[in-house]
């Protein structure tokens, strides 16, 4: 799944603020080699005018996105017109126009943004933090950041300027909320007095719903593995045995172990995705959940992969194994 992340340098896709006539835009502001008719088609499809975004401004956004990711092609590849057009049409054009119009401070765009996403921001933040109060605070904090209330070198900037339209804007917002929540947790955790470090572990009710679902899905996926598959995972990822050592244990060639581990990782990811969907998440939300930091998952991998008979399990190795599974 392609999910946009809020850049620490949102000016990467900075746009010109001047207003020009959409009927006769300056050639320098249009995408080189892109027919004017296609530019108009994309602009109309995005309903950019309703957000207060002119044709030349929208073309500047498209040009910035296309250049940044080479129109979805491998680095160094030179796209032809049909590939450029296909790439632009694959973007979430309406959300792309809305995000960048908001980044430019267009009032019409912010009215649309608030009506579409304000309630979702609060709901997602509450789910992430597991608290209505903390969720409201997190949503308000991100909203202020998106609006550009924070200044960088005396200039107001909005992270929305880094949104590229390759994933949904709602997914981008949720990913940004999760990152801001983690940043806040790690910052405040470092500031916690030593006397408070020996506090009780959080109860199940305090774990955010998404992490609880992911934890349950991981446990269910591991529970469905056969004994030999559990042995392979434990021996390779937790005990750090080599392919040769594992192969000698079960009397097969080490190339066979390599192929089995690769297939096992792929099948586990597929099964994990299915288990997340079965838990009530949409396919997009389930795919997004697979990007969670394994350190946030409270699960006893030692218990689930107990088949391994060599070495001991440590929390560091368990975290590494969870990373491989995700």
Task: Supply the key terms.
single chain, 326 residues, mainly alpha, 2 domains, two-stranded antiparallel ribbon, 14 helices, 2 strands, globular, disordered N terminus, disordered C terminus
What is the fold's blueprint, element by element?
Blueprint: H1 36-45, H2 55-69, H3 81-90, H4 93-103, H5 107-129, H6 132-147, E1 151-152, E2 155-156, H7 169-190, H8 209-223, H9 227-238, H10 243-250, H11 254-278, H12 283-289, H13 301-304, H14 315-325
Antiparallel strand pairs: 1-2
Helix pairs in contact: 4-5, 5-6, 5-7, 8-11, 9-14, 10-11, 11-12
Mean pLDDT: 75
Overall outline: globular
Major sheet size, sense and barrel closure = 2 strands, antiparallel
How is the largest sheet built, in terms of strand order?
1-2
**Radius of gyration based on Cα positions:** 24 Å
The proportion of residues in beta strands is under 5%
Order of helices and strands: HHHHHHEEHHHHHHHH
Number of helical runs? 14
Overview of this protein structure:
With 326 residues, the chain is an all-alpha fold. It has 2 domains: 1-187, no CATH class; 207-325, no CATH class. Helix content is 58%, strand content 1%. The chain contains 14 helices and 2 strands. The protein has helices at 36-45, 55-69, 81-90, 93-103, 107-129, 132-147, 169-190, 209-223, 227-238, 243-250, 254-278, 283-289, 301-304, 315-325, and strands at 151-152, 155-156. Strands 1-2 form a two-stranded antiparallel ribbon. Strand 1 (151-152) and strand 2 form a beta hairpin. Helix 4 (93-103) crosses helix 5 (107-129), helix 5 runs antiparallel to helix 6 (132-147) and helix 8 (209-223) crosses helix 11. The longest helix has 25 residues, at 254-278. The model is unreliable at 1-29, 190-207 and 307-326 (pLDDT under 50).
